[in-house]
Amino acid sequence: MNEEIITTVPHDVRELLDSEAARINSPAFIGEDPVQFPRRFSQLQDIEIVAFLSSIIAWGNRKMICRDAERMLALMDNEPYRYVMDEGYEDLNPRQNIHRTFFGEHFSYFLRGMREIYTKYGSLDAFSAGVRAGDSEAPSWKLVEEMQKVMSDVNNRATCSQCLPVNLQQTALKRINMALRWLVRDDGIVDMGVWKSIPKSKLYIPLDVHVGNISRELGLLTRKANDRKSVEMLTGLLRTLRPEDPAIYDFALFGIGVEGKKGVTEK
Fold first, then answer.
1. Model pTM greater than 0.90?
2. Cα 35 to Cα 66: distance, rounded to the nearest angstrom
3. I want to staple 99 with a disulfide (CB 3.0 to 4.6 A). Which of 57, 60, 185, 209 is the partner?
4. Measured between alpha carbons, how far is 127 from 161 in angstroms, rounded to an integer?
């Protein structure tokens, strides 16, 4: 399998990436993207809960994702932190469909773990700092590993791949990398920059099939699998362009796809 490690980005591709990033990273992007949901809140805990839940269901058609995220907020009476701490999820029908294969039982599993984290740490950002996720070379994978331990402990040792991927050596961790982009990047345009435990220089590109295809067509990636190694290779290359903020290029790779320049229509 051809997995050439690419070390430089051609000048014309860099110009395209920079222009697309600047174009898509604008307030106009917010209204049709799941990032709109955590942005509705000002309290850190509310933002964290909604960012993670919205990202967890962020697969498939964007309109369906946004519709179901809206319904999810309604389940929590638009007060997610209070809902979590009051254990409102315990009254939810386990088979209530929330989004595609994500059901009430998965929603409750995740929020049970979040309640434990908030009880002991006060915020997910403080938990991230406590487990030193930001000191890791792969903060998102470290954070998920530690979150899984807590969530398993309070859910009778069960795991839940619908909430957090369990194959951490292979998974691209697309949805969690997207949530962390929202929480960490601090340019004040689309992303919220409310976390301090992870530096934005250590963020990874949220790699899904569309971003992977665009990256290959632009000559940024040769590896065929959309897995953790590909995320590391792609992000490593983009760090050569902006070492302090490689995840800004998520906007560019997504934007090129959405505009259909490479035949992509949905994130």
1. yes
2. 9
3. 57
4. 21
